[in-house]
């Protein structure tokens, strides 16, 4: 078996921690934000079920195939989902947790991926509220709270996916 050498040793056949986290963020937003999933999750109405709450929460970065008459068109309707993916990818690559952490490896990759998704969701919500139709500071603050809550409760998925790559 032939191993390809890299400056730091053999190249892993797995992607980087940031790359696997970015792929997970894209899939999470793409699948759970889809019109089919959001319609299904919206039909779950048991107020006492933590599972139903979580399944509805996963649909937070909803995107659409048409603007449904929303001011600003299709891009404004999907701005939050688009920004979430872009910011998550950027923050996953910018947060160098594995290089500067006192505990290198899995623990820092997990928390770095989770933190990147929390920040990305909060920032995406704020920017979408400020640059979308009917911008207001109150709306931006309320959306930031919802976005950070979404990121906190779902960011562990991105953190776990980051474990699959090399630092």
From TrEMBL:
Segments crossing the lipid bilayer: 79-98, 110-132, 144-164
Protein keywords: Membrane, Transmembrane, Transmembrane helix
Protein name as catalogued: Uncharacterized protein
Protein's organism: Micromonospora vulcania
Lineage: Bacteria, Bacillati, Actinomycetota, Actinomycetes, Micromonosporales
């Amino acid at each position: 078996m032939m191993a390809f050498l890299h400056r730091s040793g053999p190249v892993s056949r797995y992607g980087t921690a940031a790359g696997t986290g970015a792929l997970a963020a894209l899939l999470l937003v793409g699948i759970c934000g889809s019109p089919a999933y959001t319609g299904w999750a919206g039909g779950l109405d048991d107020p006492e079920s933590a599972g139903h709450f979580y399944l509805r929460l996963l649909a937070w970065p909803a995107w659409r195939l048409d603007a449904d008459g929303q001011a600003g068109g299709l891009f404004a309707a999907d701005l939050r989902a688009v920004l979430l993916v872009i910011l998550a990818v950027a923050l996953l690559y910018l947060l160098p947790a594995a290089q500067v952490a006192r505990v290198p490896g899995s623990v820092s990759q997990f928390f770095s991926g989770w933190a990147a998704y929390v920040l990305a969701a909060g920032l995406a919500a704020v920017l979408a509220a400020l640059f979308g139709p009917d911008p207001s500071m109150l709306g931006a603050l309320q959306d930031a709270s919802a976005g950070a809550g979404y990121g906190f409760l779902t960011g562990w998925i991105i953190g776990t996916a980051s474990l699959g790559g090399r630092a």
